[in-house]
Design brief:
Blueprint: E1 16-19, E2 22-28, E3 35-42, E4 47-50, H1 57-68, E5 76-80, H2 86-89, H3 92-99, E6 103-105, H4 107-118, H5 126-134, H6 139-147, E7 164-165, E8 171-174, E9 177-184, E10 191-196, E11 201-205, H7 227-241, E12 247-250, H8 259-282, H9 288-295, H10 302-322, E13 325-329, E14 335-339
Parallel strand pairs: 4-5, 5-6, 6-7, 11-12
Antiparallel strand pairs: 1-2, 2-3, 3-4, 8-9, 9-10, 10-11, 13-14
Helix pairs in contact: 5-6, 6-10, 7-8, 9-10
């Protein structure tokens, strides 16, 4: 059972004090998940910012409202970005340049952002459209998903040229607080999280969210990846390392207590989705595209379809990795999944 110490989130341009030296703001996103949480940790000579928001006019204006309002006159010592998704790293370059502060993040996040910014055409590559089509998408939908469906990955300001690497097992000292650095996989490779055992405070990024499940996707550039297996392993590790009654500050939604129960709920959720696939393929082989309507609601936008399709593949790849299902390559170039 989750407990919510904060029942309302800050409106754009507002700041909420979580506890002394820990602040919370929120920026808008142009998606169904319409916000991202931003945190501030008091340092000796200012504040460390955690995450940046997506690069669009709305988020830049909301940052300006914060700088003109509750953050007016405050100094900043750095920007910590938890992972490379644009709702978290999109404005990193803009903020670091404007505030003259360093970027702290994982090596994966930094290199991924540089790659996506400097090669914006990557998701529209013919190989990726062919990958979607091989899993049962029509050529028209495959082209739509690989272009419009990935448009948000281009919502990046120019990343900084340098960064300070954060790696699992590091200790990050901020204003007299020594945070344990953890990294998790599944939602995003090498996602950075911070834990303060003495204060039972956990900044969990997007690894564990209340009410909604983080997206776990197979990306077209790693078609045989097993992000769901990595995600479930990360959930198990968090239950071992983080106290259940720690206050979890996530990248979206509300802060909450009850981390262990929420990790268990997420694991059950994915097992239920795996069972949907087992039941379907027991009746006959299915392509990933045929499985999507069994796992997600109809009427998805191209952006949502890209997530739904990629997450369906995460479950099929996981079942193949477990050995309970297998891929079957057909003469027409398509793949279907069947019982092993």
């Amino acid at each position: 059972m989750l407990d919510f110490p904060f029942t309302e989130a800050p409106a754009p341009g507002e700041i909420v004090t979580i506890r002394p030296g820990i602040l919370w703001a929120r920026l808008s996103l142009p998606f169904r998940l319409d916000h991202v949480n931003i945190y501030f940790i008091q340092d000796h000579d200012g504040w460390l910012i955690v995450d940046a928001g997506i690069d669009n006019r709305t988020c830049r204006a909301q940052w300006q409202a914060l700088f003109d309002g509750p953050l007016r006159g405050m100094a900043f010592t750095g920007l910590l970005v938890t992972h490379h998704h644009p709702d978290h790293i999109g404005l990193a370059g803009w903020l670091c340049d404007r505030l003259e502060i360093p970027l702290l993040t994982s090596r994966t996040a930094f290199l991924s952002a540089m790659n996506f910014y400097n090669s914006p055409e990557i998701f529209a590559a013919t190989d990726y459209s062919r990958f979607y089509a091989s899993h049962g998408m029509t050529p028209e939908i495959a082209a739509l998903v690989s272009t419009q469906g990935q448009e948000y990955m281009r919502m990046l300001s120019k990343p900084p040229f340098t960064f300070r690497r954060l790696a699992d097992g590091d200790v990050l000292s901020v204003g007299g607080r020594d945070f344990q650095v953890l990294t998790g996989d599944g939602h995003c490779p090498e996602q950075v999280m911070l834990y303060l055992p003495g204060e039972k405070l956990f900044l969990g990024a997007d690894q564990v969210l209340e009410k909604i499940s983080p997206n776990v996707s197979v990306m077209a550039y790693e078609p045989s990846g097993d992000p769901l297996g990595a995600f479930l392993a990360s959930l198990a590790r968090l239950q071992e390392v983080i106290a259940d009654d720690a206050l979890t500050l996530a990248g979206h939604r509300l802060p909450f207590h009850g981390l262990h129960g929420r990790c268990a709920e997420l694991a059950r959720h994915h097992e239920e989705r795996c069972q949907i696939i087992r039941d379907a393929v027991a009746q006959g082989p299915h392509s990933a595209a045929q499985l999507v309507p069994l796992m997600f609601r109809p009427g998805l936008t191209p952006h949502e379809m890209s997530f739904a399709f990629s997450e369906t593949l995460a479950h099929t790849n996981y079942l193949v990795e477990l050995g309970t299902c297998a891929w079957e390559d057909r003469d027409d170039g398509t793949r279907v999944i069947r019982p092993a």
